[in-house]
Amino acid sequence: THQWRGVIEEYRDLLEIPEGTAAVTLREGGTALVHSEWLSGLTRGEVWLKVEGDNPTGSFKDRGMTAAISVAKHDGAEAVVCASTGNTSASMAAYAAKAGLKPLVLVPEGKIAAGKMAQAILHGAQVIMVRGNFDDCLAMAKGLAWDYPVALVNSVNPVRLEGQKTAAFEICDFLGDAPDYHLLPVGNAGNISAYWLGYGQYADLGLATRKPVMRGFQAEGAAPLVTGEPFPDPETRATAIRIGNPASWKLAEAARDESGGSFESVTDDQILAAQRELACHDGVFVEPASAAGVAGLLQQLAGGTSYAGKQLVVTVTGHGLKDTATALEGFGPLVDTVVDVDVTAAAEAAGLR
Ligand code: F0G
Known about the structure:
single chain, alpha/beta, Rossmann fold, six-stranded mixed sheet, four-stranded parallel sheet, 16 helices, globular, binds ligand F0G
């Protein structure tokens, strides 16, 4: 018996990373593709959830980070920097710790979920909060990497996409081909670009007979790819995708156009409702931003789009435990029921009879 080796060792021949790069890995990837009875029923199709919260630090970022940190280490870097809405920084800090590199993180002040902040700090990152948004942090991270001896590991570093495209490989390997449609949340647009790269590579190699239609979903208050204009003041409670000027804008548009796909926005209320429904129906707890793809699917079904007979994959990008504060908002009475040590009292409170 052997365990999953992590995305570099599982797919090394298909990744563009320098030959002989030693893998810095926490055995990321190999995440579950969970069949959704709920969404399959609603679509009268076949819907699979790619559960990226299964990764070591709880989000899809680990796929790209194993690649970026391995290459940074290979190149002799001693420190690494990233801008982040939380998950990239959590992932970078963990892999930097494993590699013995010094992690430096720039995050927008007050807009990071507590779980993600805890991860960065516990893994030993220097966390700097910036009075600005993610886009400001990214500009600063680029400036630091330009002027100082720190390697940039945001997805503007192409090695990140090399690692992240392995999610598309895993989906094709499991389903036996690419699905008809792929839906996912979009923020800085690295992930949709990486999936498109991965699907394209599998098709070119004859490992898949087709490529999916790509559908990206953004929060209404941070939807530059939908409107075609940057958002100077992006705002959404799905803080992971609170981004106004995505770095991979061009690549993401190419993924949309070449696949015959689309970008759409969903409201915060739709995102939070989808998060709860997914947890209740399918037993999959994701963070708010991660539910944008599911919210988008529900919106399309309500609008009359038909997916009957089709195969869909929806990526849910990060774990629900990252941000329990947002998840519990609006559940006052459910978490406030307190009784004495008394079976009858508990039964009464629960409405049992
Ligand atoms: N979902 C989650 C949970 C994320 O953390 C992110 C991005 C996305 C979706 C969007 O992916 O940027 O590739 O389009 N988080 C980045 C971060 C920005 O800093 O953690 P994308």
